[in-house]
Inverse folding.
């Protein structure tokens, strides 16, 4: 029994398909959504979403972060931005990393929400550079 | 009576006006198509997010210490209105209908004894609202010829959240033209802060209500989801308004082209009549001259 996967970004619906398993970078470690998973809502880190048919990876997307909602029969990923891993561009990711590092230096470390957000963005940008450079 | 030369001049000037309006209509039509598909492409995300937010909100409902973006700050004295207009005109009543709606809303709130502030998005709205109301809070321009990037909506959301955190307003309302069809744009009000949470409908009769797990926890997720939702609401309104703008522009330019055509016909008729009258007059002069001999 497959699980119905949807990946949406603010600008468009990227993918909607029945898949066997999807592994996503959840907030506290990678998470695999399979049929009959308990209902769950999670934050996503920046990282790679891998889509499995059987035991093969068919598609990989890089997400900047976002939210995922898992139900026993479907999985909805609301990505802040998502691109197929092959289209991730190294120069762009490096520029983003630099911007994120600057933001991290400037951010008010006493403001919990702002600090966490900047830290997540920094980690997401690092991950993007790592994935893009192969 | 206008001379033949004058009439020719006027016909030519109306003809070039018609060329311009016809070209603008074509441009608006092609941009409309792009704007419309952008607006449609943004819908799934907004819908999914709304659903997720509703389930989350239902989970924290009734608990103390709810996020202020969701529950508001407990007052409703100062209202912030965010009217979205276009940066450019020549689109019929598109911008002025938002202006009218803003005026109606402001008057109603003032009559209830509230304070009203305005944060206009789009150049046209900024210009005419500045002239009319004193309490306009800065502004946001749409700009950008290549559609509307999401970052623009995020900036707008950021600005609104800063104002809210400073306690500059208690309730925020978005006002924009919703795209119904090419010929119809409906001014629409959406309350942004506090977020109106619709009563959970019993839509899923499939057994007991799902018990969600949250990672890391509801509060953290909500603290990320709410600002994102704000940005999405604004983004969606901007896209709808943008599509509506091109629709309105296309319709009004179509009308203008048709009017110019009518005017050319009238002027041409007039021109020909004048020409014939001149010929007739000259003939009479020649004939009466010949008879006199």
């Amino acid at each position: 029994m497959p699980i119905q996967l949807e990946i949406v970004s603010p600008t468009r619906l990227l993918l909607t398909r029945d898949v066997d398993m999807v592994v996503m970078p959840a907030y506290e470690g990678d998470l695999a959504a399979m049929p009959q998973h308990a209902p769950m809502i999670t934050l996503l880190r920046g990282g790679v979403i891998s889509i499995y048919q059987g035991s093969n990876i068919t598609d990989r997307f890089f997400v900047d972060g976002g939210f995922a909602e898992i139900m026993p029969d479907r999985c909805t990923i609301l990505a802040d931005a998502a691109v197929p891993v092959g289209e991730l561009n190294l120069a762009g990711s490096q520029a983003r990393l630099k911007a994120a590092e600057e933001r991290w230096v400037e951010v008010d470390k006493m403001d919990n929400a702002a600090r966490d957000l900047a830290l997540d963005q920094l980690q997401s940008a690092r991950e993007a550079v790592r994935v893009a450079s192969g | 009576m206008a001379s033949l030369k004058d009439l020719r001049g006027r016909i030519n000037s109306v003809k070039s006006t018609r060329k311009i309006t016809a070209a603008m209509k074509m441009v608006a039509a092609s941009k409309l198509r792009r704007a419309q598909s952008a607006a449609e492409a943004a819908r799934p995300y907004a819908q999914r997010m709304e659903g997720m937010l509703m389930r989350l909100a239902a989970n924290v409902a009734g608990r103390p210490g709810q996020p202020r973006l969701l529950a508001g700050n407990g007052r409703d004295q100062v209202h912030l209105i965010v009217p979205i207009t276009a940066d450019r005109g020549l689109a019929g009543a598109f911008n002025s209908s938002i202006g009218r709606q803003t005026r109606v809303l402001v008057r109603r709130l003032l009559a209830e004894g509230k304070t009203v502030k305005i944060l206009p998005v789009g150049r046209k709205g900024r210009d005419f609202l500045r002239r009319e109301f004193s309490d306009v809070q800065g502004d946001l321009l749409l700009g950008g010829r290549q559609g509307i990037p999401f970052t623009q909506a995020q900036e707008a959301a950021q600005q609104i959240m800063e104002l809210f955190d400073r306690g500059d307003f208690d309730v925020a309302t978005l006002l924009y033209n919703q795209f119904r069809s090419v010929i119809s744009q409906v001014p629409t009000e959406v309350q942004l802060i506090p977020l109106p949470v619709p009563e959970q409908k019993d839509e899923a009769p499939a057994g007991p209500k799902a018990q969600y797990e949250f990672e890391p926890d509801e509060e953290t997720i909500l603290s990320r989801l709410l600002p994102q939702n704000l940005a999405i609401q604004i983004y969606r309104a901007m896209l709808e308004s943008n599509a509506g703008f091109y629709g309105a522009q296309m319709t009004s330019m179509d009308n203008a082209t048709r009017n110019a055509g009518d005017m050319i016909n009238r002027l041409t008729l007039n021109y020909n009549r004048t020409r014939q009258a001149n010929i007739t007059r000259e003939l009479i002069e020649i004939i009466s001259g010949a008879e006199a001999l």
Chain A touches chain B at residues 6, 8-13, 26-28, 31, 38-43, 67, 69, 71, 76, 78, 80, 113, 117 (CB under 8 Å). Chain A has a mean pLDDT of 88. The first strand of chain A starts at residue 3 and ends at 9.
